[in-house]
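Researcher: Next sequence.
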Amino acid sequence: MARSQDSIREGSHFGSSMTAAGDFTATPPFVVRSTAVQRVPYVFNSPHSGSHYPPRFLAMSRLDAKAIRRSEDCYVDELFAGAVTLGAPMLAANFPRAYLDANREPWELDPRMFVDPLPAHANIRSARVAGGLGTVPRLVGEGQEIYAGKLRLSEAVMRIETLYKPYHEELKRLLTHTHAQFGYAVLIDCHSMPASIRLGDSGLRPDFIIGDRFGVACAPALSDAAITILTRLGYRVAHNKPYAGGFITEHYGRPARRLHALQIEVNRGLYMDEKTLEPTTGFTALANDLTRLAADLMALPDEYFGGLPLAAE
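Model: Next structure:
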């Protein structure tokens, strides 16, 4: 993955005959991994593990090919791959988070990034936009600016229309199919977090953070079970702090309709070197434990996921 050598001057803006529509022709923007028959009412999702960086995108960036990966949930789709062998489909992005973040509203955009004015329906005031982490991010991890100049609005529109919307259409299709087959659906949204994360005044470094939007995105039994299983495996587990779940957990978690969503954040220090971005010797053991987690969650009784009163939403 070599960075383009094209020279980009600060203050220029980007717009050419080459567009986002052609960035994912040889490599599909996302994939669904599954067995021939879905055996469980679970869907796994890895929206931030994409590692295909189109040359056109790299030419826009002021970062080198390694620095631009600082927001990537490296290898998370591989860590959770055991869930697929257990009979659950997994949707995984190939487009990187630095290029497009599927765990945001479709139009969370930062007006500082664009030459053109944004449409009225754009959410320009969210905390995520303020932090540089909108649908088309301005920053990667460690607060580094991605672009050498401003973008045309058409660049963001193309990414949203050709990648973001089809990704969410596929996720919705998987959940709808699962719900129809089993009577309920459970979405496990898989992420990783920097090893530097600490909890408040305690300074505790969590190995996992379980997010359920403070109890509204899934049945309490699902969160409780995930915390219990991981704790028994010897891990330090936090609940909702500092990550309670992003747009995907919030948007798809509808327990009253028997649609449950749980976010799992894995500490990168457990399985990779954050400087070299290479897996460490802990990778295999962690992947085995995550397969155990998936199997134990899948063994939870169906009655835990029954409908709740609609007023609960």
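Model: The helical segments are 55-60, 76-79, 82-85, 127-130, 153-182, 220-232, 247-252, 283-298. Residues 1-17, 307-313 have pLDDT under 50 and may be disordered.
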